[in-house]
Give the backbone structure.
Amino acid sequence: MTASPTGQPAPGWLPSPALLALLDGLGEDDFLDRFLDWVHAVLGADQCMLFFCAADKRVSTLLYKDFAQDESARALAHSYISERRYMQDPNFALLKECPPGELHVLHLEHLGNEMGPNYRRRFFDEPGFKDKLSIIRGHAAGNYYLNLYRRAGSFSEVFRDPEDEAAAARMLSSLLVKHYLINQKMLAQGPLAFLSHREQQVCQAVLQGKKSELIADELGVSLNSVATYRKRAYEKLGISSRAQLFALCQ
């Protein structure tokens, strides 16, 4: 916060009602919904992706949302992780090695010729994205990778200068890091955090190699219910098989 020559807070330092609502939800169940609403309304993001690179360099999906084509977001998140497309991401080397506490803000033009044609086609041309803002935040527990996309216009239209952009990037990354640290279980669940409690239970049992009959017995539900929960979970995760579930949650 800056001060005017009179010693009073400078005009414009007060946070907006939308930002206050976002801060109020930190650590709560609906925080991610509020976060998505904020980046869509304030930053004009058409898609939001959040990935986590653990200390052992494994990458997992924490959050995905396309405000116009939700199925597209699921498919892209699945492709990025299960097909190991992150290995082709020009930002991956920085994501792996970013020291704790360090912050990087990257634009689409920063990628230059480092982006291969197949990667560009899959993650930009096919979904119709024209601009991308990436934020990498290093942390001792692992590094966070927030990607915001626009189909029209540029993120440079949102910020008055690089200092505003850097402040916004630090705020957004800090909120996400704090939220997931508060909810360590959510961080461990990765993409399963999107699912209902029953859907999570079924997927976790599948990941443990349990058969449907045992899952039904342990949860006290019918075989049909297990199949229904599994089907719903797979649809939400954008997958269609047990093998893909293992790949997504590796």
User: Anything to note?
Assistant: Confidence is low (pLDDT under 50) at residues 1-7. Residues 131 and 154 are 6 Å apart (CA to CA).
